[in-house]
Design brief:
single chain, alpha/beta, seven-stranded parallel beta sheet, globular
Length: 261
């Protein structure tokens, strides 16, 4: 059955894949972003965008990692999507979130917990899908930690997943969640990794000379969460490929050099 589905955060890391997946499956997709004239924070343009939708995907991301700013964003966006979605008669909302966000005492993780709580408390039935770190984030994280030819990366056990795989799972929940779908579910990649190892694979493939050094994390208040595997998926998580190496082969099939990037 063809559905009309609105996707908030349609130009973001996951949202743009959700738009593609739903369109490929033959659904009527309504992309929601500031680029399409809709602001989920102020509510501008939201009511007409949601008119006649069967479901909503909330893949919008906060513009800042700061807890206060991110919380303000998610409080406004979450409430606006629930209120407007309820008036539009949407049957469900699917929210993209982060594995382990409830373990953090502050920061962006705490803001996502607020987002989840607001979404679950609204008039439209909601499902939360918490995802592990994306394959696509590795390059950005390496760049953030690079100084003088050395990339200091967090000592972290992780189970990264491709953004496209998360989008496919989100699309499944939006179109047919099933009676046994948990209120809060998880998705991760097929294999546990050390962040430093996959960072080394990435820089080698990109032809960068940067050296990867795993940080001990004494200044990281969440070092124990990163190093002990507390942020790995639980036993009931959906595991979806590709592995990081398979994703790397598909994204950068040949080794690059700085001159060709």
């Amino acid at each position: 059955m063809t559905m009309r589905i609105a996707v908030a955060g349609a130009t973001g890391r996951v949202g743009r894949h959700v738009v593609d997946v739903l369109a490929e499956r033959g659904h009527d997709v309504v992309p929601i972003s500031r680029a399409t004239g809709v602001d989920v924070v102020t509510g501008r343009g939201l009511a007409p965008a949601l008119e006649g939708v069967d479901a909503i995907v909330d893949a919008a991301t906060g513009p800042s990692p700061d807890e206060r700013e991110a919380t303000a964003f998610f409080e406004a966006a979450g409430r606006n999507l629930q209120d407007a979605g309820g008036r539009a008669g949407a049957s469900r909302i699917v929210v993209a979130s982060i594995i382990g966000c409830d373990l953090f005492a502050g920061g962006y993780g705490r803001a996502k917990v607020v987002h989840e709580r607001i979404s679950l408390a609204g008039p439209v039935p909601a499902r939360i899908l918490r995802a592990s770190q994306f394959h696509e984030f590795v390059e950005q994280l390496v760049a953030w930690g690079t100084r003088d030819g050395v990339a200091h990366v967090t000592a972290m056990r992780m189970q990264p997943v491709a953004a496209r795989a998360v989008a496919e799972a989100v699309a499944d929940l939006a179109t047919d969640p099933g009676d046994d779908a948990p209120e809060i579910g998880e998705i991760a990649g097929p294999r546990e990794e050390r962040f430093a190892r996959i960072a080394e694979l990435l820089v080698a493939r990109l032809g960068d000379s940067v050296r990867i050094e795993e940080a001990a994390g004494p200044s990281d208040p969440y070092a124990s969460l990163h190093e002990t595997g507390a942020l790995l998926p639980g036993p009931g998580a959906l595991l979806a490929g590709p592995t990081f190496e398979e994703w790397l082969d598909a994204t950068y099939p040949v080794a690059l050099s700085r001159a060709t990037r």
